[in-house]
C-alpha cells in the first residue's frame, strides 16, 4: 500500500526522518512531500496546512488521513526494518503508549527547535525558556541519535582523507610558480597526531627568498632536510603569528642560513618568556624558544625582485599578520583563513576581529591563497594540480563564503543572547543538524573538544563573539550544563 507523508520542510527533525525513509524504503512506498509548496487539496480535501505543520499527517491509498502517532505508524509500516518494532507496539499496550507519548513529545518539541534556529516559520509561538530537560534539548538529542550513524560515517571518511593527505605530503616540498614558491611540509614524531586527528599539516612557505612560518622546535630535522634541497636562498625569516607551530625555528633557521628575522612587535613580545603555552601543546608540537635577534616588520618585506605587503589580520589571534604580493596576487594567510567552516578555534580567537580582517582581505586581488596548514586555494592554470594541496577554488570566493559563515554565526549568537539562551544552547543553534558542513564535521570537532579539554571547541566559537552593550548573558543555565 502506498502512502503520502506531509512533512515540515523547515524542520530538521522532519528532514532527518525523510532522509532515513528515503534510504530504507526500498520499494518506494512512501512519498514524502513538504507541506510548504504542495497543493494539499490535490492529495486530500481534508488536509489543512496549519494542522499539517502542527503534527505529522499521512494519507493512504483510500484517501484516509492519519495524524500524529497513527501517521508515524502508517509511514514506518511501509519500511521493512521498522516492522518488528511496530509489531511490538501492536502486541503490548505499554509499548504503544510509550510510542504514542514519544511521538507527541517529538512532534510538539520540533516547533521549539525551529523557532530557536532562526525563528523562520512559526512566529506565532510564544518563546519558552530553554531548560535542560525541555523540548529544545529533547529534540536536539533526538536529532543527534538520528544523525549519529551519518556523523560516524563522515568522521571515518575525514580520518581516511586526513591520513591520505598526510601520507602523500609527508616530508614533501611542493614547487609552484616556476620555483618562486616552495611549500615545505614539516613534521616530527609526536606532531603527526595533529594532521591525523585534526587534519592540519605543518608547513613553511618560501617565497622569493622569504621564509614564512618555519615550524616548531620539534620539526627541525625535517626543516634541515628541506634546506639541503631548497631551490632558493633564504635572506629573511618572518612569522604570521606567535603560535608554537609557526615560530619555533625563527632564530635557528636565521642562524643556519644567515638570514634576518623580522616579526611584528606584538609577536616579538609574545616570544619572550614567560610563555603561556599549555603543557600538552608544548609536548606534542614543541616549546617556544626565546626570540633573541629580530627587527620589526614594518609595512613591507623585500623579496627577490619585489616585495610583500604586511597587513594586520587579527581574529585568529591578536598579533596575526598576513603577507601579500600585490603583483603576483599571492597571499600568505597563515591561520587567518583556516577553511570555510572552521569550528574549533584557539582560546585567543576574536570572532568580530576575524570578520573585519576577512572584509579587508576580500578587497585584495588574491589569485593564490596559501594557508599555513597545507592548502593552496587557486584557479590559476599555471599552478598544477597537486592532490591534497591545491584546491581548485577561487580564493576571493572562498574568503567571501567564510565571511558569510562568520557573519551568520555572529548573528545567531546575538539572537541567542537576546533570547537569553545559555551558550551551549546558542552553540546548538549555530551548528544545526541540517547543513552538511555542520553534521559532517561534528565528529572531528567533538574529538578536538575532547583532546584539548574543551579549549578548541564549537563553544569557543560562540564565546569568541563579544557581547554587545545591552546583551544579557545568562549564567543560570550555564551553571547547570557545565559541571564544575
Ligand atoms: Zn595559529
Structure description:
This protein is α/β, with parallel strands linked by helices. It has two domains: 3-104, no CATH class; 158-406, Ribonuclease Z/Hydroxyacylglutathione hydrolase-like (Metallo-beta-lactamase, Chain A, 4-Layer Sandwich), CATH 3.60.15.10. Helices cover 44% and strands 15% of the residues. The chain contains 20 helices and 18 strands. It has helices at 12-24, 40-43, 49-54, 68-77, 83-91, 93-116, 135-169, 193-198, 220-229, 244-247, 250-257, 265-270, 279-284, 351-362, 395-418, 423-430, 436-440, 442-451, 458-463, 476-481, and strands at 3-7, 30-34, 57-60, 65-67, 173-176, 181-186, 202-207, 210-212, 236-238, 260-263, 295-296, 300-303, 306-312, 321-325, 330-334, 368-371, 376-378, 390-391. The strands form three sheets. It has a seven-stranded mixed β-sheet with strand order 5-6-7-8-9-10-11. Strands 12-13-14-15-16-17-18 form a seven-stranded mixed β-sheet, with no helix packed on it. A hairpin with a 4-residue loop joins strand 14 and strand 15. Helix 5 (83-91) packs across helix 6 (93-116), helix 14 (351-362) packs antiparallel against helix 15 (395-418) and helix 15 packs antiparallel against helix 16 (423-430). The longest helix is centred in the first third of the chain and has 35 residues, at 135-169. It binds zinc ion (ZN). Zinc ion binds at residues 241, 243, 316, 335.
Amino acid at each position: 500500500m502506498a502512502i503520502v507523508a506531509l512533512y515540515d520542510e523547515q524542520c530538521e527533525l522532519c528532514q532527518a526522518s525523510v532522509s532515513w525513509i528515503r534510504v530504507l524504503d526500498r520499494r518506494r512506498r512512501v512519498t514524502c512531500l513538504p507541506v510548504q509548496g504542495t497543493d494539499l487539496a490535490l492529495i486530500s480535501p481534508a488536509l489543512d496546512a496549519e494542522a499539517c505543520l502542527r503534527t505529522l499527517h499521512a494519507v493512504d491509498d483510500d484517501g484516509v488521513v492519519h495524524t500524529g502517532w497513527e501517521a508515524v505508524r502508517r509511514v514506518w509500516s511501509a519500511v521493512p526494518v521498522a516492522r518488528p518494532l511496530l509489531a511490538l507496539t501492536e502486541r503490548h499496550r505499554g509499548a504503544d503508549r510509550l510510542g504514542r507519548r514519544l511521538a507527541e513529545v517529538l512532534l510538539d518539541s520540533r516547533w521549539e527547535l525551529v523557532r530557536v534556529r532562526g525563528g523562520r516559520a512559526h512566529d506565532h509561538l510564544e518563546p519558552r525558556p530553554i531548560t535542560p530537560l525541555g523540548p529544545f534539548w529533547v529534540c536536539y538529542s533526538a536529532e543527534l541519535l538520528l544523525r549519529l550513524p551519518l556523523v560516524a560515517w563522515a568522521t571515518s571518511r575525514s580520518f581516511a582523507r586526513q591520513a591520505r593527505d598526510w601520507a602523500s605530503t609527508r616530508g614533501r616540498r611542493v614547487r609552484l610558480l616556476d620555483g618562486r614558491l616552495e611549500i615545505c611540509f614539516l613534521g616530527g614524531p609526536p606532531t603527526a597526531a595533529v594532521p591525523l586527528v585534526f587534519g592540519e599539516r605543518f608547513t613553511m612557505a618560501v617565497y622569493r627568498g622569504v621564509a614564512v612560518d618555519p615550524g616548531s622546535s620539534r620539526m627541525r630535522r625535517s626543516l634541515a632536510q628541506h634546506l639541503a634541497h631548497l631551490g632558493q636562498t633564504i635572506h629573511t625569516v618572518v612569522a604570521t603569528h606567535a603560535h608554537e607551530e609557526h615560530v619555533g625555528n625563527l632564530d635557528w633557521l636565521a642562524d643556519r642560513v644567515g638570514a634576518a628575522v623580522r616579526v611584528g612587535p606584538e609577536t616579538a613580545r609574545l616570544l619572550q618568556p614567560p610563555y603561556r603555552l599549555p603543557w600538552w601543546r608544548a609536548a606534542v608540537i614543541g616549546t617556544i624558544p626565546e626570540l633573541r635577534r629580530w627587527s620589526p616588520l614594518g609595512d613591507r618585506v623585500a623579496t627577490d625582485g619585489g616585495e610583500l605587503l604586511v597587513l594586520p589580520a587579527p581574529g585568529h589571534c591578536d598579533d596575526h599578520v598576513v603577507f601579500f604580493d600585490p603583483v603576483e596576487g599571492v597571499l600568505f594567510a597563515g591561520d587567518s583563513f583556516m577553511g570555510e567552516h572552521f569550528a574549533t578555534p584557539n582560546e585567543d580567537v576574536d570572532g568580530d576581529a576575524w570578520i573585519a580582517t576577512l572584509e579587508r582581505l576580500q578587497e585584495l586581488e588574491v589569485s593564490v591563497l596559501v594557508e599555513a596548514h597545507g592548502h593552496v586555494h587557486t584557479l590559476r592554470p599555471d599552478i598544477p594540480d597537486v592532490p591534497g594541496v591545491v584546491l581548485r577554488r577561487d580564493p576571493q570566493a572562498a574568503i567571501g563564503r567564510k565571511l558569510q559563515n562568520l557573519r551568520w554565526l555572529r548573528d545567531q549568537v546575538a539572537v541567542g543572547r537576546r533570547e537569553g539562551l545559555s551558550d551551549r544552547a546558542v552553540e546548538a543553534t549555530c551548528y544545526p543538524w541540517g547543513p552538511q558542513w555542520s553534521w559532517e564535521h561534528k565528529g572531528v570537532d567533538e574529538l578536538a573538544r575532547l583532546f584539548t579539554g574543551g579549549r578548541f571547541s564549537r563553544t569557543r566559537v560562540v564565546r569568541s563573539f563579544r557581547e554587545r552593550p545591552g546583551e544579557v548573558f545568562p549564567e543560570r543555565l550555564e551553571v547547570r550544563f557545565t559541571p564544575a
